[in-house]
Design a protein that fits this description.
Shape: rod-shaped
Number of domains: 4
CATH architecture of the largest domain: 2-Layer Sandwich
Strand order of the largest sheet: 2-1-5-4-3
Distance between the termini: 93 Å
Oligomer: single chain
Number of strands: 17
């Protein structure tokens, strides 16, 4: 609004009209106050017209017009009683909604005429509500800004928390559109960035699972309102991994039906493997205790049957030498009895190995010589005559605290399995290297080029009596005994294998204490 050109002859009602027009116009309240003060000084010929505001620092001049300047110390006593007049000064207190805002001051040499004083008081009454509203507006805007900053900080914190979770997480609404996609999910196997995912339907982003299957899972959670949890396996990273998937319904703030579903994916491969190892160790301990009792009760009658069968074989042989007619099936039956009793005794002996804690004193030793001792036992055997064996022992491999005989037994069993898996043709590699942690300081790998192990068999191969060999070719205790021995050495044994790609059995042992 253009500023009106006023002079000292302007009537009070004209001044008030112009002031009202200024206050009603758009613009900053400070700029409008400056215009009002300028109007008043030019209309009245006053030496000063000033606006003072109450602040935490005291009374402060917010705007001033004219050639004179009244100090704050002169005004403070006059404002104590409200409106005041003292010589050339007229002071009008400004208040709004019961709150003191400040004062409007007019200074005229010779005193303030009555009609000017009346108009000045009216201007003060007009200015006070405008200042009060402006202050409330500023307070409201400041509060709104503060709340907006708080909300932004909360939103940023929530995003940081969601991004810091060690699980992949995403949220979809009822239209299956993605509203949250955390950093773990962003950096997952599918490598979809957050910008690409947000706002898209889940079916546009996740392509490995059939869309209809995903839709059914989500609809079931939306309709039932119950959390859904299951475990799935994936080879997206190149190796088999187990994931626990949890779908959680999220209710709208207004109590309406469930509006979103939170999906969390957690890699539980290592947890599952640890649980299996603990369960297997417990099973082997129970089995070892059972074997001890079985050996005590069964060994005497087995020995009696063995002695009787051997006596029968000898008697039949003697009758045959003396010219008697001995049916071939009788001799074969007696020999079968001797052989099968031997198998039973060997099986019970193997069971005892599961709980056996002896077999030599534990000493700090290098693994390399144990590998050579195992190969020295096996190389003369026919099964190893056509095999190529390679041994690689890295420098700086720590010593382990172990029993020579037990570790040699494990290596012999693993090498025999490798030979069978390759039908005695190909190369078996034994590699010894240092690990990355104290509890896995030494790593021994037996690598074959055999037929490999089916995925369904991998999780069972260390279980007692589990075997993939044909009838009569094994008891299924060899790898169980290996597992038991390595567990007693505070280590672990694991396997990587795939059908047609060979197998790698890996033994991880802690280092021997440094004296």
């Amino acid at each position: 609004m253009a500023t009106a050109q006023l002079d000292s002859t302007v009537a009070p009602h004209v001044l008030l009209a112009d002031v009202a027009a200024v206050l009603a116009a758009e613009g900053d309240i400070v700029r409008k106050c400056v215009q009002v003060l300028d109007h008043i000084t030019r209309a009245t010929g006053a030496g000063e017209c000033s606006l003072w505001l109450v602040t935490p620092q005291g009374l402060v001049a917010a705007a001033r017009a004219g050639t004179m300047s009244t100090p704050a110390v002169e005004l403070a006593p006059l404002l104590e009683g409200g409106d005041a007049e003292s010589g050339p000064l007229m002071v009008r207190r400004l208040a709004s909604a019961g709150r003191r805002l400040g004062a409007l001051v007019l200074r005229m040499e010779g005193g303030v005429p009555a009609d000017v004083g009346t108009a000045f008081s009216a201007v003060a009454n007009m200015l006070a509500p405008a200042l009060g509203w402006a202050e409330q507006s500023r307070a409201f805007v400041a509060e709104a800004d503060k709340r907006a900053r708080q909300l932004e900080e909360e939103r940023r914190l929530i995003h940081q928390v969601v991004d810091s979770l060690p699980v992949s997480l995403y949220v979809v609404d009822r239209d299956y559109r993605i509203t949250v996609w955390n950093r773990k999910r962003e950096a997952g196997s599918q490598g979809v960035s957050r910008d690409q995912a947000l706002g898209k339907t889940l079916f546009e982003i996740l392509h490995r699972a059939p869309a209809e299957k995903l839709r059914r899972e989500l609809d079931e959670v939306f309709q039932s309102g119950r959390m859904q949890q299951f475990t799935m396996e994936s080879r997206a990273t190149g190796e088999p991994r187990s994931y626990r998937i949890t779908k959680i319904p999220m209710q709208a703030a207004d109590g309406e039906p469930f509006s979103h579903i939170i999906t969390i994916g957690e890699d539980v491969t290592d947890t599952a493997a640890t649980s299996e190892r603990i369960s297997r160790t417990e099973q082997l301990a129970v089995l070892g205790q059972l074997a001890t009792g079985v050996m005590a009760d069964v060994s005497p009658p087995l020995q009696s049957v063995s002695d009787a069968a051997e006596t029968l074989v000898q008697s039949l042989d003697e009758l045959a030498r003396d010219g008697a007619t001995v049916p071939d099936h009788a001799t074969e039956a007696a020999r079968t009895a001797v052989r099968e009793v031997g198998r039973c005794r060997a099986m019970i002996g193997s069971l005892l190995d599961l709980s056996h804690t002896g077999d030599g004193e534990r000493v700090a030793m290098d693994v390399g010589p144990v590998v050579e001792q195992a190969l020295a036992v096996l190389r003369p055997l026919p099964a190893f005559a056509t095999l190529t064996t390679q041994v690689f022992v890295d420098g700086g491999v720590p010593k382990v605290l172990g029993a020579h005989a037990q570790l040699r037994q494990v290596l012999i069993a693993l090498l025999q399995n490798a030979a069978e898996a390759m039908d005695t043709q190909g190369t078996v590699t034994i590699r010894v290297r240092a690990g990355q942690a104290a509890h896995e300081a030494v790593i021994i790998e037996v690598i074959d080029e055999g037929r490999g192990i089916a995925r369904g068999d991998l999780r069972h191969i260390f279980e007692p009596f589990y075997t993939t060999k044909g009838p009569g070719r094994g008891t299924g205790l060899g790898l169980s005994i290996c597992h038991s021995i390595i567990a007693r050495h505070n280590g672990r044994i694991e396997v990587d294998s795939a059908v047609g790609a060979g197998s790698t059995f890996r033994i991880l042992l802690p280092g021997a204490p440094i004296p």
